[in-house]
Amino acid sequence: MVTMLFKNITRALLKNIRFTTSGAYPPKLPVGKDAPKGSIAKMGSPFLEPMSSGEYALARIDDVINLVQRDSLWPLTFGLACCAVEMMHFAAPRYDMDRYGVVFRASPRQTDLIFVAGTVTNKMAPALRRIFDQMPEAKWVISMGSCANGGGYYHYAYSVLKGCDRVIPVDIYVPGCPPTAEALLYGVLQLQKKIKRKREALLWYRR
């Protein structure tokens, strides 16, 4: 884990050094009608024009933090039904989730991601919420399968929760009954894209 963090931080710093030494600091970007759509987003800037060197530096700090978080996701093993079999398939050598920095942990206090894989009953809902509250910030949730998304086949059963998002906030929904390991892999990649767009330090500075 420490080696992975060091490599990610070093890679991000070297990338930023090459970028900032090539021109002015902060770089002057085309604005208004002259600015092509998407060019600012590719450079990692959350604003159309850098307002100050401080905001530019905070944006780069956000980039480093997001890089470390998205490349070292530690999910909790929370398999409730048949979707958990595909979750195990995702962890097997064929798809090798370790190459994305995804490592299963058994304790919620050591995780930052939870796969809700299977049917959530009314009795399981308080336990799910308690486990979610025990996870440290920042944390994310992937709802895996039709049952976790909205009740699925048991939607009209009196004992089944109509979606785990009634108990905990969900970031990514993976459809299917059950979804394949490829679908779960795609969901993890979408979550990594979402983490990459975070701008917590910059938003804190702008308050």
UniProtKB/TrEMBL annotation:
What InterPro entries would the database entry show?
NADH_UbQ_OxRdtase-like_20kDa (IPR006137), NADH_UQ_OxRdtase_20Kd_su (IPR006138)
Cross-referenced NCBIfam families: nuoB_fam (TIGR01957), PRK06411.1 (NF005012)
The record's annotation in SUPFAM superfamilies points to: HydA/Nqo6-like
The residue range of the signal peptide is none
> From what organism does this protein derive?
Gnathostoma spinigerum
Q: Does the keyword Nucleotide-binding apply?
A: no
Q: Which UniProt keywords apply?
A: 4Fe-4S, Iron, Iron-sulfur, Metal-binding, NAD
- Which superkingdom does the taxonomy of this entry point to? Eukaryota
Classification via HAMAP family: NDH1_NuoB
PROSITE patterns per the record? COMPLEX1_20K
Q: Which Gene3D superfamilies match?
A: 3.40.50.12280
Q: What is this protein called?
A: Probable NADH dehydrogenase [ubiquinone] iron-sulfur protein 7, mitochondrial
- List, in alphabetical order, the Gene Ontology terms for molecular function in this entry: 4 iron, 4 sulfur cluster binding; metal ion binding
Give all residue intervals belonging to the NADH:ubiquinone oxidoreductase-like 20kDa subunit domain.
Answer: 82-191
Q: How does it assemble?
A: Complex I is composed of 45 different subunits This is a component of the iron-sulfur (IP) fragment of the enzyme.
* Homology family: Belongs to the complex I 20 kDa subunit family.
Give the stretches traversing the membrane: none
